[in-house]
Structure formats: C-alpha cells, structure tokens
Amino acid sequence: MSPDHPPGLDLDRLRTLLDRERPGLARGPLTGRLIEGGRSNLTYEVADGTSRWVVRRPPLGHVLATAHDMRREHRVISALHPTSVPVPRPVLLCEDEEVLGAPFYVMEFVAGTPYRTADQLAALGPERTREAVLGLVDTLVELHAVDPAEVGLADFGRPEGFLDRQLRRWGKQLDASRSRDLAGIDELHAALGRSLPSSPAATVVHGDYRLDNVLIGDGDRIKAILDWEMSTLGDPLTDLGLLVMYSVPLELPGSPISTTAAAPGHPAPAELVERYAARSGRDVTAVSWYTAFAWFKLAVILEGIHYRYTLGQTVGRGFDRIGELVPVFIDHGLTTLQEG
C-alpha cells in the first residue's frame, strides 16, 4: 500500500462518506499518512491539498470494542469542544464498519507539537519549558472544572466506587501478565487497597494526562488535549497523580520509556501539586496515594508488555529492556506511599 494509502485507511470510501455527510468539506483528492506516537488507537492525518483533518480508528485486527470505543472518544470531545477545554473540533462519527473496517471518527487537524522526551522539551529552553508544564496543570484544572451534567456527560461513567474498581481492574491485569516473581508488587497493591482515600466530587477524567498527549502551539500554550480513549467520570486526582508521576525524573539510560521531567526548567512535582490545589480548590493531601497508584498502574502496563515480549508478540526495538524497568516503578510506588 502506498504512503498516501496507509493500512486501515481507505481514502476512496472515506471521501464518499465525507461527500455524503459533509458535502463540500473536502475539495481536492485525499491523501493520508499515519501519525506515529499513539499507544493504541490509530491516528491518521488526511488532507485535500487545502485543508487537513485527523481520523481516529481502533488498531487493525480483532479488538475488544470496549477498549477502543470510538463513540466514547467522539462523545467526550464533542461535549468539551464548546467549553474552555482545548480539544479538536469533531467533524463526524462513523459506526458503519463497511467504510474502514471499524468504527472511526474525524476531527479537525490542530497544529502543534507533542513533546515526548526531555531532549525535545529542552529545545524550548528553561523558561518556556516551565510555562508549558505549568500550562499543563492549568488546563487540567479547567477540565476538572467542567460540570459533566451541564455538557451532557452525566452518564459517561460510574463514579461510585471508582478507586476500588480501578485498583481491582489493574490487579486483574497484573494477574493476567504474571510470568515471574516481582518483589513488592503485591505488597504495593495491598497497601493501596488498605489506604483507599475518599474521592472528591466526580469530574471528567482524561485517564492518561501527560505532556505528550497534548499539543503545544504558539506562545507555548496548549492547543489541544488528545487521546481520550481512557476518559470517564471519576476521581480527578487520578489525573493529578499520573501527572505527578510523569514529573519525577527517572535515570533510565537507553530506556524505551521516556519522560520529559529531566528537561531544564521543568517544575518539580511539589510545585505542580501546589498549583493544582490553589487553582482548583481541591484537597490534595492524599496525592501520595494517587501518585503511588500511578506507579503501580504503569508497572502493570510495563509487565504486560514484557509478558507479550517473552511470548514473541511484540514488534519493534526496545521491548527487551521493558522487563528490567518494572521493579523501578514498583520501588517508586512503595516509596511514595510510605512517604505519604
């Protein structure tokens, strides 16, 4: 398949759909390319020579519908677009699998840069890096300030018992990936269960909120939050805990897991927590629990990748190093919980 016709994107069928559902939107012949960087769902840039859009669809092959629910992603950005939360403008949702082989949606193309590594962020310089990361906190506060009922998302999740369900879910994920002894991981899971905090009022939760899931544009402002596949209604401090976890510098030379925290000017985790607390008005005294839970969750995700690597089910470079990272995340989780 040619570069302009990447796998999973039938441009002729897409053009027929656009002409029928959004007459006049596309004017010239369509071209498409896969945008690298997504963890799960596939993202394509589509252009007609004048305008650009983005298409999101599940991975190729058989997938669990609930894990790659295009309707949910489209619904949440449609609900948030009229608010102050920066998301791309939705164009259409297509649930007819005859078009691309799976449900998908189209949204506007937003110009901006996702910063995935400390080296990329360092190119901005310390002052601009600091402003960009503080803007990440401010935008999270804006997201958590949205009243779900007011934007039609009152039934977008089940907030009652959210943390308990999350902990049980990731415990099951761990059990499904067990292939070796992992010192401390059961201790961490049990300790999290014993010290479950009381959740504040539920908000829209992104579920994977970090710097490389947003686009930074002119003025180092966040132009769009992307990758809403894990969004739901739940405890907003889970988003904060994950952001804090990704803000801890990790000395992992040669690691396929990268964070931006080591970039000069990157604010320390404590400053991000203080800024979130001041701007949101929420009690963040239990932030250590949420951060430890983020370490646990990432440890489970990495162990799952390692398990698939041992079965020969991963493709690409760097997977042979994943296994040795898991104990690092477990240790950080235990230490964070004890210090809290």
What does this structure look like?
With 340 residues, the protein is an alpha+beta fold. The protein is built from 11 helices and 9 strands. The strands form 3 sheets. Strands 1-2-3-5-4 form a 5-stranded antiparallel β-sheet. It has a two-stranded antiparallel ribbon with strand order 6-9. A hairpin with a 7-residue loop joins β1 (31-34) and β2. The relative contact order is 0.12.
- What does the largest sheet look like? 5 strands, antiparallel
Could you report the average pLDDT, rounded to the nearest whole number?
91
By DSSP (H or I, 4+ residues per run), the number of helices equals 11
Distance between the termini: 53 Å
Q: What is the ordering of alpha helices and beta strands?
A: HEEEHEHEHHHHEEEEHHHH
Which class do the helix and strand fractions yield? alpha+beta
Strand content: 5-15%
Gyration radius from CA atoms, angstroms: 20 Å
Give unreliable regions as ranges: none
What is the oligomeric state here? Answer: single chain
**Number of DSSP E strands:** 9
- Percent helix, as a range, is 40-55%
What would you call the shape? globular
| Order of adjacent strands in the largest pleated sheet | 1-2-3-5-4
Task: State the main characteristics.
alpha+beta; 11 helices; 340 residues; two-stranded antiparallel ribbon; five-stranded antiparallel beta sheet
What is the structure about, briefly put?
The chain is α+β, with helices and mostly antiparallel strands and 340 residues long. It has helices at 11-21, 70-80, 97-100, 118-122, 126-145, 162-176, 185-194, 237-245, 269-280, 287-310, 322-339; strands spanning 31-34, 42-47, 52-57, 90-94, 104-108, 203-205, 214-216, 222-225, 232-234.
